[in-house]
Amino acid sequence: DIQMTQSPSSVSASVGDRVTITCRASQDISSWLAWYQQKPGKAPKLLIYAASSLQSGVPSRFSGSGSGTDFTLTISSLHPEDFATYYCQQANSFLTFGGGTKVEIK
Amino acid sequence: QLQLQESGPGLVKPSETLSVTCTVSGGSISSSSYYWGWIRQSLGKGLEWIGTIYYSGSTYYNLSLKSRVTISVDTSKNQFSLKLSSVTAADTAIYYCARHWRLRYFDLWGRGTLVTVSS
C-alpha cells in the first residue's frame, strides 16, 4: 500500500492567514492526488484533483501543487468557513488517504 | 441534482454480516462516466476506501478487506450495496457511499451512516 503522511496534524490560524498543508506519499504517485475538506458531522468534499485542478464551485483561494511524492494544499486567505479538517488521497495505486490536518481558529 | 443516500441497520453483532445500501437519485447509476464506491471513517483509522463497482458489475476492492467484502449493484433500483462479513468492533465506523470519478476521485458523497458493531 502507498502510505500518505500529512503535516501538520493540526494548525491554528486566524481569518485572513495563509495556510499551507503538506502531504507526502511513500512512493511516486505522479499527480494522482486529491484534497478534501471535511466539516464536523459532514461528508468530505472534493476540493482539488490531479494535484492542482480546482473542482467546480471551489473558491480560488484554494490551490494545490506538487508531483511525485510531495504535495501542498494552500489556502491563500483563510475565511471563517474554511475551519475544517483536510485530507489528501492518492489515486495512483488503489486508494489511500492521509491522516488529516485540522485547521483550527487561533 | 444527483444525490446519494446510505441506509442500513445502525447496529450489527460481532461475527455477523454488515449490510448497507446506497440509493442514487437525480441521475442514473448506469452512467458510463462514473463508478460507485464505499469509504468508511473510524476514529482509529481515519478514511479508508473499501471498494468500488461499475454499473456493469465490475468490482475493485481494497486488498486489506477483500476477503470479507462484497459490493453489488442493482441498476433497476438505482442502488449499490456493501456487505462486510465477520465483523468485529474494529469495523465500527461511518460508512459513506460516493461517486467515484474516473476510478480516481470521489466527487460526490452521501451523508454517511454510522454502523456500530456490538453485542
- How far apart are the first and last residues' alpha carbons of chain A, in Å? 36 Å
Please tell me the overall pLDDT of chain B: 96
Q: What is the 3D form of chain A?
A: globular
Query: What kind of assembly state do the chains in view correspond to?
Result: heterodimer
Note the total helix count of chain B. 0
H/I helix tally of chain A = 0
Assign a percent range to the helix content of chain A: under 10%
- Strand residues, percent of chain B: over 45%
Number of strands of chain B: 11
- Low-confidence stretches of chain B at least 5 residues in length (pLDDT < 50)? none
Count of β-strands of chain A: 11
The assigned structural class of chain A equals mainly beta
Low-pLDDT segments of chain A = none
Task: Please provide a written account of the structure.
The complex is a heterodimer of chains A (106) and B (119). Helices cover 0% and strands 50% of the residues of chain A. Chain A is built from no helices and eleven strands. In chain A, strands 2, 4, 5, 6, 9, 10 and 11 form a seven-stranded mixed sheet that branches. The termini of chain A are far apart. The mean pLDDT of chain A is 97. Chain B has strands spanning 3-7, 11-12, 18-25, 34-42, 46-53, 59-61, 69-74, 79-84, 93-101, 105-109, 113-117. In chain B, strand 9 (93-101) and strand 10 (105-109) form a beta hairpin. The radius of gyration of chain B is 13 Å and the shape is globular. The relative contact order of chain B is 0.31. The model of chain B has no long low-confidence stretch (mean pLDDT 96). Classes of the chains: A mainly beta (106), B mainly beta (119).
